[in-house]
């Protein structure tokens, strides 16, 4: 790629990108692991299926995602993301899928276990927080960061498994937080940029609270709602079904596709 393209590092990968992604760490390198390429807009491939406004095709080494009024995103062989934004689409909107869903699928193509959740390093141990919207994941993450924890990843957590255990890969030093969660960090939400003009969430730089090395996974916490504060161990029979991984989304789509949905 051209020397003027953006060079980043995320999840242990060297990334060259035609798209500016300020959330990623800038880096210097001579050879990239991943290329993010801009391509002229094209019509939605007819094979794509899904809900109105969001369509996709998921395969082992190729995934294609279509967002109406945003663009078409193709992820190939764990080393390339091709972006075809629609004319007039907000840059912020186009950038969001690249750093989240597209990266998640690319990491899966490279063999990582990918979980939809936040990861932190606390006293040398890695923990992952998983929970549905409104369950306090962002607020708890902000609290733990304000109490000495260091961020490993926000929305997409990549885990590498080898003979020595499971390791959380450092993503990039930025979080998407609601204003009340930002208050836990002692920051001014009004001074931070929104991730989208119509969304209250802010992009919060975490450079000083970021763990730069892979960290051994110690615990995985599933957040839920209850009248009192409780901590329960998840039995083995329910662990796989509560992982909230991107893989589960892909497998669910394939199953529905076989049924003709």
What would you say this structure looks like, in words?
This protein is α+β, with helices and mostly antiparallel strands and 261 residues long. The chain has five helices and 19 strands. A hairpin with a 3-residue loop joins strand 8 and strand 9 (80-85). It is globular, with a radius of gyration of 18 Å.
Q: What is the succession of H and E elements? A: EEEEEEEEEHEEEHEEEEHEEEHH
First-residue to last-residue Cα separation: 40 Å
Taking all Cα atoms into account, the compactness measure Rg is 18 Å
Strand content: 35-45%
**Helices and strands: which structural class?**
alpha+beta
Please tally the helical runs, counting DSSP H or I stretches of 4 or more residues: 5
What is the approximate shape?
Answer: globular
Number of domains: 2
């Amino acid at each position: 790629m051209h020397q003027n393209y953006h060079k980043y590092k995320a999840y242990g990968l060297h990334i060259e990108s035609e798209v500016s992604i300020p959330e990623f760490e800038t880096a210097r390198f001579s050879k990239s692991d991943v290329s993010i390429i801009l391509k002229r807009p094209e019509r939605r491939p007819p094979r794509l299926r899904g809900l109105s406004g969001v369509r996709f095709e998921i395969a082992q080494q190729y995934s294609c995602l279509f967002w109406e009024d945003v663009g078409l995103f193709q992820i190939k062989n764990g080393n390339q993301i091709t972006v075809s934004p629609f004319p007039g689409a907000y840059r912020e909107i186009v950038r969001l899928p690249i750093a989240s869903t597209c990266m998640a699928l690319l990491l899966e193509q490279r063999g990582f276990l990918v979980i939809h959740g936040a990861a932190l390093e606390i006293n040398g141990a890695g923990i992952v927080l998983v929970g549905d919207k409104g369950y306090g994941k962002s607020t708890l993450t902000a609290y733990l960061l304000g109490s000495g924890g260091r961020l490993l990843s926000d929305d997409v957590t990549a885990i590498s498994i080898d003979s020595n255990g499971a390791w959380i890969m450092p993503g990039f030093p930025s979080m998407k937080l609601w204003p009340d969660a930002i208050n836990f960090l002692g920051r001014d939400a009004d001074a931070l940029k929104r991730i989208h003009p119509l969304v209250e969430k802010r992009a919060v730089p975490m450079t000083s609270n970021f763990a730069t090395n892979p960290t051994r996974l110690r615990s995985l916490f599933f957040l839920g709602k209850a009248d009192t504060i409780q901590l329960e161990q998840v039995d083995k029979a329910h662990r796989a079904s509560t992982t909230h991984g991107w893989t589960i989304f892909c497998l669910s789509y394939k199953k529905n596709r076989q049924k003709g949905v």
